[in-house]
Amino acid sequence: MNHYWTGEAPWVHHLDADARHSSFFLPPSGTSYVARLDGARMGDEQAVFEHMSACLRFPVYFGWNWNAVADCLQDMKWVPADHYLVVIERSALVLQEWDEDREILLRILNTAGRRWGQGLDRPGKSFNSLLL
Fold it and tell me: Where would I find the Barstar (barnase inhibitor) domain in this sequence (predicted)?
């Protein structure tokens, strides 16, 4: 499985019938949007806002504060999709010296996921975060 998503051969992969949870590797039906963020570039509050804005393509009216991050993650109409996945690689480095801000960010990500998942106005849509 080392060759997934690399652009190198092989380009066709076969999972054995006994592969557990193979559906985890597949996107759900419908359109999906994946944003990859680098925790090493998210060392302080301002850096988080800048990196998230760039990677998630926040609109020009983004307010550069935690409330604005929450609002944008619960909207995402500028990147229409059925499913959203935010992948934060090297997540241990995110706000490493700012525990309170890190908790705020995690709470915002969790709330966005819950609101997308329970939103009666968005049936079948999802927002998830993956911290690596």
Answer: 34-118
